[in-house]
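Hey, resending since the last one bounced:
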Amino acid sequence: SPCSRPQKVCLCPFLPVHPLKVSTCLYIIQHPAEEGRVLRTVPLLAACLPPDKCKILVGRRFNEERYPELATVCRNPNTLILYPGAEATNLEEVAVMSSGLSVMIIIDGTWSQAKDIFYKNSLFRLPKQVQLKPSISSQYVIRTQPTNTCLSTLECAAVALSIMEKNKSIQETILHPLQALCSFQLQHGAQIHHSKEHLLKNGLYDKPMPKNKRKLRRMELLVNNVKI
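The structure tokens again:
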């Protein structure tokens, strides 16, 4: 079945009957560690889209010799890469000016894994860098996020596609299986995971504070509500 889950917790009824018709093509750059996660969201995303609109590449290092197609995509002026930062433009602004077909690259992994992939692969500095406004909270409540506005890969793709395609229903359709996944897991014993930001601010963080000064500084910024 499309979701590859046991019948009691099958997510197929929550997937769209037919793949969504979109003009934007997604390239998901997936860190190898994500392949082993049972509750990863990329398979659900792929099940919502046509195969030619959601291409998944697994690895840490990407160069032109091994990935000529990806190199061509990165050099295309219509290609965007979704990665927040000082150099990133809000996607809403770019979508207003965009015309025709477009490609978006999204990195799938933990924040540290995504950072490693982005900065150690020069190809990913070629596309225009965009980011989402921190306007919604993650519904992926069975996995801990750094802050309240950090989103899973599926959520990022859902929001981004709805903006690029100018169709809010795309976001709702893609989030439907994620909501069902979290509901099933909570019914079978999973616990709601608050963000690290929430735990620190409310005195609920029960793990030892890191000794690494850089990590400790990041946690101090979370507590003081400073964007990192």
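The two ends are 40 Å apart (CA to CA).

Sorry for the duplicate.
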